C-alpha cells in the first residue's frame, strides 16, 4: 500500500490537528466531585480513514473515565478494526500509534498541556497493525507485507528508520499469516509475533537492536492472537479459535509450551493482558461479550479462574490495565470504553461504559 504523503499535509487536516491540540486538557485536569482527582489517562486510536486520532480519557481516582480531547496522529486509519493488539502503546511519556491507512507510525508526547504530536514516519511495509518499543528501538508489524520493520526513536519522539531492519515473517504455506501482534520480550532479547492465519508464533533473536531471521513455533491452539508476559517473562497467549489461553517460556529463539490451550468456555478470546504482579490474566471474548480470568502460577502454569469474570455490554476490541493494575479497560465494539475494578484476588467489578468521539473502527488502547 503506497504512502500518500500529500494527505498528511492537507490544510484541512492541519486545521483539525491544531484545533485538537489546543483543546487538549492539561495532565493535571481538575477534580471530579464524585470520583476524585484525575490520576492518569486512557488513550485509544480512532482508526478513522479520514484522519487517525487519539481519543483521550481522564482516568479518575476510582478508575472511572471522563472523555476529553481528540488529537490527530497525522496519519490515516482503515475505518475498521485492525483485529490486532498493541496498535497503540505507551513508552514513558511517548505514545506510538500505527496508521494502517497510509503505512505510517506516529509519536505523541504526553505533556502538561496534553498530547502533542511529535513525528510521523513510514513503517517500511504494508498495513501496520501493531507496534512495540524498548530502549529507543521501535518495531512495527506490517500485516499485509508480512514483515516487521525497525525504527529508532529519540527521547523527544522523533523517528528514524533502522537501516536493513525489515524481516519477513515465517510462512507455513500459501495461507496469509494475518499476524496480530509484535512485542519485545521483557529482557529485550527477542521479538514475538503471533499469526492468526497459520497457527504459528514467530520469534526473532535481537542483537544491538536488530532482529534476526524468524523462527517459527507451532501454537498450541488455533488462531493465536493477543499476548502479554508474566513476571518470569513467559508469554501468555490468547487463542481465538478454541477461545483459550496457552503459556510458553521464551528464551531467545527457544519456545517451550507450559500450559497448552486452557479453554475459557467463552467464544473468540482475542485480547489478553496480564496484571503487573504477573498473577492474573484477562481475556476479552469478542463473540460472547465477556471477560475471562486466569491464575498464573509461579512457574507459568495457567488455571481458569472465572469463565465470566465480568460481562461486556457490546463485544470487545482491545484491552489495557492501569499502570497500578487496579483498573481494567476494554474497548467495546460500539466505540465506548468499559472500566472495571480489579480486586486483589483477580475478580472484577464493572463500573461504567464511557463513550468517546467515535462509535466504530477503533483499535488500540493504552494507559498512563
SSE topology:
Elements: H1 5-8, H2 11-23, E1 31-32, E2 36-45, E3 53-60, E4 65-72, E5 88-91, E6 94-99, E7 104-111, E8 114-122, E9 128-134, E10 137-142, E11 147-153, E12 159-161, E13 167-168, E14 179-184, E15 190-195, E16 200-207, E17 210-211, E18 215-218, E19 224-229, E20 235-239, E21 244-251, E22 254-263, E23 269-274, E24 280-285, E25 290-296, E26 302-311, E27 318-321, E28 327-331, E29 337-342, E30 348-354, E31 365-367
Antiparallel strand pairs: 1-2, 2-3, 2-31, 3-4, 5-6, 6-7, 7-8, 9-10, 10-11, 11-12, 11-13, 14-15, 15-16, 16-17, 16-18, 19-20, 20-21, 21-22, 23-24, 24-25, 25-26, 27-28, 28-29, 29-30
Summarize the structure.
The chain has 368 residues and is mainly β. It has helices at residues 5-8, 11-23, and strands at residues 31-32, 36-45, 53-60, 65-72, 88-91, 94-99, 104-111, 114-122, 128-134, 137-142, 147-153, 159-161, 167-168, 179-184, 190-195, 200-207, 210-211, 215-218, 224-229, 235-239, 244-251, 254-263, 269-274, 280-285, 290-296, 302-311, 318-321, 327-331, 337-342, 348-354, 365-367.
